[in-house]
User: Fold these one by one.
Assistant:
Number 1:
Amino acid sequence: MSSPINSYITANKDRFLNELLDLLRIPSVSADPKYKADVFKTADAVKDRLIAAGADNVEACQTAGYPIVYGEKIINTSLPTVLVYGHYDVQPPDPLSLWTSPPFEPVIKNDKIYARGACDDKGQMYMHVKAFESMMKTNTLPCNVKFMIEGEEEVGSNNLGIFVKANKEKLKADVVLISDTSIIDNKVPSITVGLRGLSYMEVEVTGPNRDLHSGVYGGAVANPINVLADMISSMKDKNGKIMIPGFYKDVELVSKKERAEMAKAPFNKKAYMKELGVTELKGEKGYTPNEQTSIRPTLELNGIWGGYIGEGAKTVLPSKAFAKISMRLVPNQSSEKISKLFDKHFQKIAPKSVKVKVSYHHGGEPVVTPTDSIAYQAASRAMQDTFGKKPIPVRTGGSIPIVALFAKELKLKSVLMGFGLDSDNIHSPDEHFGVFNYFKGIETIPLFFKYYMEMQK
Ligand code: BES
Ligand code: MN
Ligand code: MN
């Protein structure tokens, strides 16, 4: 295919790649204040790139936290508008020692770009900037576009929520387009039609009023780490069912027909286990791994600590134990309700020997997006053109809390047209993004715009 836009993309391939590498060199870790200056620097870099690509009214909108980069190209106010959302912040790179090459010194190995944020989400967000540039330079942008690129997605998008509520007119659009998810395989394209919600809690269990000698007091005084471990293990039964009363009450049951449809997506259990280095899969009984990670809610320990964890051995009966616990939610569970149920249950199961404190981190609501919309159909046709195969609609286990807010506050549906792979190690050491996937995105996005316009009646 050598349409003018494809020729433009091919002619600028090296530059498109190098610009992404430059962006990946700035460590925009939103969770850790030590990177604060770099997160701001990244916002400015994104702003400059949007201006260079041809966007108007570009600004790094200040918030109580990190800036939201906004830009637009309004070619005709009577035409539809696509709002592109993405995030320029990244997860912390820890544990550093497990990276093959430094996380903020991107390298290309085996046709993959290795760096923190390569896939989630700088690489995928930047595909949109380059697709936009390519449409501008070849005079093929068919409708209006607005960009909203935030810097706090990995920490809960709190300020974006405020921004969206305060800027409804500015953000007026017809659909939201997001590339922050994955496809099944480079040969099996898919479009995400469901995201799970999230309730993220932190618990603190306190036993004695100070750390004690584990020989002098051990045996007579409850150890808060043991107590916490017991409490946690009581929260799931042997079938993987979560034991918090009311937890499943609002869970939407997916029809047999839809489950049969989902089961058509290719899944190789052996390859899945091998890739993860596990010899058995374990999840809620009665559901397939694909269902367990998409249409069923979960409860996971993300971190647990307490007592002495330094070098060597220290005999201690600690005063406190802690854990970070997250629950992934499915339609129609509510993050607020589930957080409260967890809190109540955790207080209730605590034995008299300890005091417990439960605190709430961020949360978000689950979403399901339609497949019968013009926007979904446009994305499907665009991917069919570039992959040579019709994409399969799939629900995924991850969360992008702001998507539910777009629906609620802006009354906008989102199309989750991502190009990553689940094996790209997002949030893990050696995160990467295929060069193939990066350019597939840059090629597909303009086709989305084209079909989205063509299909309007
Ligand atoms: N891009 C991910 C979400 C994602 C990844 C969806 C892969 C589908 C497939 C996003 O950046 C993310 O990591 N979200 C967090 C939630 C957030 C509140 C920290 C998540 O899912 O843990
Ligand atoms: Mn992301
Ligand atoms: Mn992420």
Number 2:
Amino acid sequence: MPDPNSPSDFEPSVIPIEPSNLQTFKPVLPIPEHLVGEIQSKLAYVDEAIARAIVPASGDQISLVLHEPVDAARQAELEVKVQRVVASMVKGSIKPKVQVLEDYLDRRVAYKLDPMDELLARGEISQETTGVFSLGPLVTGLIGYFEGRFLELAASFGAVAYRFPTLIPARYLERVGYFRAFPHSLSFVTHLREDLDVIDDFSQHAACDDHGALVGQVSYLPSVSETSFANIQTLLSPAVCYHLYFTLADKPLPGGKVVATAVGNCFRYEAINLVSLERLWNFTMREIIFVGPKDFVLENREIARQRMAKVLEEIGMAYRVESANDPFFIGEFRKQVAFQSAFQLKFEIRARLPFKDSTLAVGSYNYHQDFFGRNLAISLSDGSPAHTGCVAFGLERIAFAFLAQFGLEPENWPTAVRTAIYPV
Ligand code: AMP
Ligand code: ZN
């Protein structure tokens, strides 16, 4: 069975390895096994020259596959940057104790292949750009099924429904320390400045280069440049529940407790780690969100886990629920991970991917203590800050894991799922 903190989430796409574009060296400190996947995923953000980073499970070597060969000075520069990541993440790191709350990884599942190839071949999904996919009827039907189950779960708590925007103001994210914790995955939104000359220039010269990047190069004319764009005040939202916390900010919590649910587009830029439906730049999350006193939030997170276990049993999915951490950036990583682990703040549903004998997080059970309550001044009746927690499901991921376990033919699917989507 796969290693609990499997690095397999971060297997990048296959790039041909030539001796001339391969750079291999020893890490400044040996990388402990529990950090191999985390460090490999962070190497994606080290330098644009890196097409793929490989850290073996032994953690005693780092290989960089580069887009093209570079000279010795540039190699030295890349190594220094990589070693900075290693030193920052390894020094003083303590292996978090992995707590397993449910283990059904060995449930028998019928399928063994990577569904990606078949989904693409049948036109059931199509890639628009890196990490951005359109989903056809098969995956859409499955997501609809899972959404139905999540809505039942939400209704069992009397959750009220919200709809949140896809954009989120920069000042919201600043207020909850997002820039410090997850700068690497931010997606920014801007528009042309309100200036007739800038807009005219853009309309005449904007075009995409060979890589799909927007350029406006016309030799002697002004080009589409950073100065054409307005200051960034808005980003693409990285999570759903933040929006609820902001609607509740700076006032007493109505009725002392809130349970809400919403689905929304979320964006996390994951560079060369963006492969297949497993890791998307633009994905959809369904959340059930609890706001109130500590016990209320913790009890409901636990009840949600138990109710969800029944759903996953009925479907027959192979999975495990275990403690986890968020993908904090290197400077914050060690401290935040130790904190999340010590206070059991995050558990993930990791579904089995038989084709690579590994697991994929399809959902999470989160408790934020009074972090949002304090930072956003959401107060309980006694004036203390509210506690928050959320149960979050990745819709594309749960559909992908289901297809990896049961294949693309509905007649091979568990009856509960097949008859719900395709009633006879
Ligand atoms: P998190 O808030 O990080 O626990 O995310 C909740 C769920 O969203 C995860 O368990 C995944 O199922 C899904 N998710 C997170 N990041 C991605 C991504 N880059 N691509 C697809 N799904 C994701
Ligand atoms: Zn959340």
